[in-house]
Amino acid sequence: MATIQWFPGHMAKARREATEKLKLVDVVIEMVDARIPESSRNPIIEEIKGQKKQLILLNKVDLADPSQTKRWNDYFTSQGIKVLTTEAKDGKGIKQVKAAIKELMAPVFEKNLEKGIRPRPIRLMVLGIPNVGKSTFINRMINKNQAETANRPGVTKGQRWLKIGNDFELLDTPGILWPKFESEEVGNKLALTGAIKDALLHMDDIALFALSQFKLDYPEYLKKAYRLIDSDLELSNVDLLMLITKNLGFKEDYEKASERIVFDIRSGKLGRYTLDQAPVSLTEEA
Ligand code: G4P
C-alpha cells in the first residue's frame, strides 16, 4: 500500500473516519504485527473504541519468535483482552477468529433474546496501522461467494458491508491509524519490520539498529547468516556492519549491505524474531 506521510491533518482525518466507522460495528478487530505487538499499536484505539467489544490479532506470527508470541498472548489475556494469533497471508487462524467473535457477542445476544430481539449478523471492522495485514485479513475473512448487503442509511458513501455467511458483516475498508512516532526506537522497529516503508530514516541507520538488537537477542542468526564468529559480535555496530559488508562480498559498499540486512530481516530469512519484549504478565508473576 502507498505510504502516507502522517501530518496532523491526516491524523485528525484518520481518527474521525475510524471513530465514525466504530459507531456502526459490534466488534472492533485490532490488528498488530506479532513481531512488534507494542510498537505497532496506536494508543488512540483505547480512547476511540469506547465500550465496543475488542479483539486483538497478533498477525504475521509466522515471522515472530514463538516464545515471545506466547508471552504476548498471556500478557493481553491477563489484561482482560481477547487475543488470537493469525497468519492472514496463509489464512491461518481465521476459523478461530470467527468463533471468538461469536463468543464475545454471545452474552449480548442472550440478553436480547430475553427481550424478544432475534440475533442478527455481527458487524465488524478491522483497525490498525499500515502494513500489519488488514487487507489480507479482510480478503481471507470473506469467501468467494460473498455478497454485499444493501447500503445502510448513515453509512459513508462508498462504504460497503461484506457479508460473511449468515453470521457476520464486515466493513470492506479497514480503519487506518498512524504508526506511533513516540521515540526513535519505536520508529526503528517500525522501519525494520516494514511498517513504515519510506521512513525518514536511512537504511544504514536501520541496519545498525538491527545489528544492535540482534546482537543481544538473536546472535546466532547473525553468525549463521553472515559467517561471523563469537568475537565478531563484540565489535561496535559500525565495525560489525563493515565486516558483514566484506563477508557479503560488497567490499566497502555498506549501503548495499545495509539494504541486504534489512531485507533479510524483514523477510524472515534470518529466523523468527520479536523486537518488543512482552511485559511480565500477572499470571507469570504469580
Ligand atoms: P495493510 O492492509 O494492513 O496495510 O496490510 P496488507 O494486507 O497490505 O499486508 C501488508 C503485507 O504483509 C503484504 O505483503 C502481505 O502479504 C503481508 N502479510 C499479511 N499477513 C501476513 C502474514 O500473516 N504473514 C506474513 N509473512 N506476511 C503477511 P507485501 O510485501 O505488501 O506483498 P506480498 O508479500 O504479499 O507480495
From TrEMBL:
The record ties this protein, via InterPro entries, to:
G_CP_dom, GTP-bd, GTP-bd_ortho_bundle_sf, GTP-bd_ribosome_bgen, GTPase_MTG1, P-loop_NTPase
Q: Where in the cell is it found?
A: Cytoplasm
GO annotation, biological process: translation
> What sequence ranges are listed for the domain CP-type G?
15-179
Residues noted as binding GTP in the record, renumbered to the chain: 59-62, 131-136, 175
PROSITE patterns per the UniProt record, alphabetical? G_CP
Molecular-function GO terms, alphabetical: GTP binding; GTPase activity
* One Gene Ontology cellular component annotation held by this UniProt entry: cytoplasm
Q: Does the UniProt entry include the keyword Cytoplasm? A: yes
Q: Principal localization? A: cytoplasm
Keyword annotations for this protein, in alphabetical order, are: Cytoplasm, GTP-binding, Nucleotide-binding
**Matching PANTHER family:** MITOCHONDRIAL RIBOSOME-ASSOCIATED GTPASE 1
The task this protein performs is described as: Required for a late step of 50S ribosomal subunit assembly. Has GTPase activity.
User: Which family is annotated?
Assistant: Belongs to the TRAFAC class YlqF/YawG GTPase family. MTG1 subfamily.
Output this protein's name.
Ribosome biogenesis GTPase A
The organism encoding this protein is Granulicatella adiacens ATCC 49175
- Gene behind this protein: ylqF
